[in-house]
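Journal club side-thread
Mid-discussion, someone asked how the predicted structure for our own chain would compare to the paper's figures. Pasting it here so we can look after the session.
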Amino acid sequence: MDPFNRRNALRAVAAGAAGIAVAAPGAAQASGAGRQQAFAAAAEEFGVPEPVLLGVSYLKSRWDYNAGTPSTGAGYGPMHLTDLRTAAAGGSHHDKGTEDPRGDAARPALRPKAPRAAAPVPAMQTVDLASELTGVNAAALRTDPAQNIRGGAAVLAQYQRELGVTSSNPADWYGAVAKYSGATDSTAAATFADEVFGVITGGMSRVTDDGQSVRLDAVPVTPARTQVRSLGLPAAAQGAVEAPPGVSAEWIPAPYQEIDGGYGNYDKAERPKSQRITHIVIHDTECSYDEALALVQDPTYLGWHYTLRSADGHIAQHIQTKDVGWHAGNWYVNAKSIGVEHEGFGAKGTWYTEAMYRSSAKLVRYLAGKYGIPLDRQHILGHDNVPGTTPSTVAGMHWDPGPYWDWSHYFDLLGAPFVAWPRQQTGLVTIKPGFAANHPAFTGCDSPGAVCPVRGSSAVILRTEPRDDAPLLADIGLHPDGSPSTMGVADVGSRVSTGQQYAVAEVRGDWTAIWFLGQKGWFSSVHAQPALGRVVTPKPGLATIPVYGRAYPEAEAYPAGITPQDVVPLQYTLSAGQRYVAGPVLDSEYYSATTFDPASHVVVRGQTKYVQIQFGHRVAYVKLDDVTLGR
């Protein structure tokens, strides 16, 4: 058949002008058929090599449907057709709640403002182009996976026509694939295309989130990479960027400058000479990539180290990793970590593209290798794992990247998969639900109290008894009145996450209880696997020990002129008989950096040592002198 199907294209344009959704021949069969057949039918209809169509879709969505909901980059369906009008909503997560991103009581709290909404970019409205080319309305293209695949194929074919290349050889579709990325510079576009052709060359198969078996057989191909020049895109600004080979990255600096009443929007340091970098914190922006860039370049705002774009995984670096960003809401964690933001819309879309997962994993693996950071959930934290600093700040801490971040897949990409310890009974477990089939009934994704769309999740819910209808655990930090936690998507008070490790408190039949915030939390045993590690218990003779949100030095360690920071326990306690999985043993440190002149900055080190523990959904710290550390 004619690869560009002129008759159908004219029919589609006429129907689109009339506002009528018209399916092209073969579309009805594809809608009712399996995902694999839908790809084959769309590839034939629009003259796109099937491996190219499958490869592009995999880099966008891993062929998933995601219940017809938008990605964190405003993309829908297996082909990630973008529609910013329906998906882009909400402000940055930094302007929500009461969290002070610096988390440093030695200076006034920083209260970020909401971003100004960015106007939709025509190039990022691929659903409109797909509708024009197919005659299918935007709503169907967003929600019907077969029509979505047709729409993506039509867009790819249009990009190929614009290049003036007629070929059925996948190698000759490099330029069209690069343009489909949505990238605004040639480096990002080429990096996306390289990832797609890597999938095509290596092959891939998986079962999608809605149970569809899809396979891409390996096709050895050497793509025509010079085609990217025909797109007329500028090169990215490299600058002082710290990133690994094989990613698209540019330097977009955050300002370090004095402003009325202070300075913005990070602190100068000399890490790791001044102090070790021990953690990487994973965030999502909850605003668009462009809005996030505008915010991080505002000297009255705050700063983090990297932002990743959803559509293609492009990386922007804003702060050198030697310097301390204001991102995690806990100054101890900020001073010891690197903050990595991922484009996302918390209010509307909560699935992340494969392109961004892959780029992020490459970046984090590079940073972990550079600074000797172990690749585990004790060192690679979500923002939702960072503890409040004092009792008053616990409730305001943020919860991104949220329960829909696929930690298992992410650690697979990091090259550090969560592997079960071969012995059956170790007394410890690693949380590991099957992501695609795990559907906690969260509420509040779109509006307060509303049920969230059904989708895969890394989260496992804890109960007070070994039964599905038992109440959730209480978290006095989030609910001071002692009421149970809720299924609100932001309520982490009775929730564990993939890759986190806990000590087993009891087993009854098919249920396991773990120690969690001083309580036994029950969940189905199918969501965990045996683990090996160290645990802490209170030293003999201690009925309870305090738990802290930061590992600060004792008062005697502070030099003259620097006010000692209070070592204030959180509202929780760790009681005798309870066990918690131990993370790293940490030196007590406080980075005194309250003035614009870095010459006055001082790292205060104490004699007290702390142990990081997995205490609840968030980590916490206990003094080494208060615990017995063992297996």
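Post-session note: Residues 6-83+125-231 form a domain with the Lysozyme fold (CATH 1.10.530).
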